[in-house]
Amino acid sequence: MLLLTCPCCGITAEETEFSPGGEAHLKRYGPGSTDDEYEAYMFQRKNPRGVHFERWRHSYGCGKWFLAARDTVTLEVFGTYPAQTTEPPADIVARIKLKRPEWEGYR
Amino acid sequence: MSEHTTSVANGRRFTGFVSIREQQHQGMITLRGDLHSDIVSKAIFEITGCAVPAQRCVERADTCAVAWMSPDELLIFCPYSSVANKEARLSRAVAEEFATVVNVSDARAVFDISGPAWRDALAKLCPVDFVALTEGEIRRTRAAQVAAAIWVSGPEDVRLVCFRSVSGYVFDLLCTAAAPGSEPALYG
Question: Which of A36, B12, B44, B60 is deepest in the core (most CB within 10 A)?
């Protein structure tokens, strides 16, 4: 079972109270970008075995979006943080590196 | 003002190992906006007598209660007879703010659940650790397949707020969960 803590209301709940929103920290490539950039933005998603950054919405609770860092194999959650964050916060990256020394890092 | 529309549960009652009753004619107003704004907190205090509640808490005063629903949303409980007046006054008071006030009395249903084993009944329906939920708190979650808010209003009383469109479903759920002899006895 995946337990997430919503940073907006402080509730820790199991995953059926949340809705998944796909990969986090995507940068939009819109008009003026190259076809390759647009294709990558639109269609190409990471699908790692291991550390992953995701968007979640507390859909049955406060209704807010937030971001989560977790392991897709063990379901260990390294941390959750506000949606208004453009890249993983330093403390969460440090925690992941401590627990997964083999992790090649974000990006 | 439009006619009061009754819900499918229509004030029905059920007594199992906890008792369930749909509370009809409960006035409810949703306010969305910046809860830290002075204008909003002053308006809430003047019209309900309550302070803006802390995260996941409910403030009560006289006939009103104000519940924290999300970082930018409050649910105000008041007598049904005064809801139109309170809605109009609140709307005027926050007119200059980036905020909205809506009377949702006929769009929500409220169930009173009472009895010492209320945690056992609700634990069958909600993915919630009810030990962590104390009196004066409100917890938004799901009850089986629909959204619900659970307010612990007294030592042995809780109120469950759901959308009125699913009030018949929620009443049936609660009756099944409270069937006599089916106590899971999870909470001592």
Answer: B44
Of A8, A11, A16, the CB nearest to B71: A8
Q: Where are the alpha helices (DSSP H) in B21-124?
A: 38-48, 83-93, 118-123
Q: Does B144 touch chain A (CB under 8 A)?
A: no
Q: What is the ipTM of this complex?
A: 0.89
Among chain A residues, the shortest Cα distance to B74 is held by: A62
A61 in contact with B, Cβ within 8 Å: yes
Cβ contact, residue pair B70, A10, below 8 Å: no
> B140 and A60 in contact by Cβ < 8 A?
yes
At B123-157, the pLDDT tens digits run 999 999 999 999 999 999 999 999 999 999 999 99
Domains and CATH numbers, chain B: 13-24+107-177 (3.30.1360.120), 26-103 (3.30.70.1520)
Of the candidates B56, B71, B142, which has its C-beta nearest A60's C-beta?
B142
pLDDT tens-digit profile, chain A (107 residues): 899 999 999 999 999 999 999 999 999 999 999 999 999 999 999 999 999 999 999 999 999 999 999 999 999 999 999 999 999 999 999 999 999 999 988 87
CA dist B141 and B129 (Å) reads: 11
Beta strands A12-14 and A3-5: pairing type? Answer: antiparallel
Angstrom distances, CA of residue A50 to CA of A25, A69, B138: 17, 10, 35
Identify which of B71, B127, B147 has the shortest CB distance to residue A64: B71
What strand order describes the sheet that includes B58-61? B58-61, B64-70, B73-79, B26-32, B100-103
